[in-house]
Amino acid sequence: MLLGAGLIGTGLTSTDAFSNLNASRSTEIQTASDPNALLGIVDRSSSAQLNSSGSATIYGLDDNANAFYKDDISATVMEVTDATGDVDDNPGLTADIAAGSQEDYNVDMICDNDGGTTLNGQYEVTVELTVSSNPAVVATRTTDSQVSITCKDAYTVPDNGKEKGSIETGKDVTVGNNGQVKGDVESGGTVTLGQNAQIKEDVESGGNVTLGQGAQIKGDVESGGNVTLGQGAQIKGDVESGGILYIGCNAQVKGEKEAADVVFYSC
Questions:
Q1: More confident residue, 21 or 145
Q2: Count of CB atoms within 10 A of residue 32's CB?
Q3: Name one Pfam family in it (predicted).
């Protein structure tokens, strides 16, 4: 697929079809690999997989004319279509233009973890590409293959990531391995800390609170569900649990404990 000569009638719009840059090029170019293509669009969806904390490359872009900077190109995810044909025109996905390895640029898709949408399955993805040249060109493309997408309705601090303030959300909260939240966490769902993760203030959760090995909450914990501390985990404040408090090997709750039951696990 191309952006450049021969755009009219192919689903692309341009007032001048890049005539300023491409006046001498043939309008019969049909393959993205053709070296005369101004900007080739290469579908990469067959190997794309997306989860909540990563990105997935769905298109590569070849700047064969050396005419564009990365900031000249933008992408928007317009809709996704699942295996049954249902269309979601507000899928909670964003698209980014990044430096490529196989092509000059990649169109990368990312879960918008604040978007409130849960996707879990195989989807065709429709993207609008805009090249802000003079004149501008807009292309709408749907992936050749269905993309495996898992975007959970959650607020995620990635592995080794840092949240400098507090988190307040109606969704689940996940702090990845060695991740850190410097403020409070208030969640309408569950709160999960990975290995050696830290929350430096209080936690209030509508669901379960789970601390992985060596994880730490330095304030109080108020949970509508169970509270589980993995091996060597620590809660420095009080715990008020609407369910059962599970304390693993060498784990500690330094404050008061209020729960339906308290279960200690031996090493």
A1: 145
A2: 20
A3: Bactofilin
- Ordered by where they begin, the domains of the chain are 2-151 (2.60.40), 154-264 (no CATH)
Provide the pLDDT for residue 118.
Answer: 76
Residue 104: count other Cβ atoms within 10 Å of its Cβ: 18
How do residues 201-228 score in pLDDT, each as one tens digit? 999 999 999 999 999 999 999 999 999 9
Q: Which residues contact 168 (CB under 8 A, 6 or more apart)?
A: 184, 186
> How many Å apart are CA 180 and CA 161, to the nearest integer?
6
Whose CA is closest to 211, among 225, 231, 226, 230?
230
Residue 40 banded pLDDT, cuts 50, 70, 90: confident
**Contacts by residues 9-12 (CB-CB < 8 Å, ≥ 24 positions apart):** 11/139, 11/140, 11/141, 12/137, 12/138, 12/139
Strand partners, 2: 40
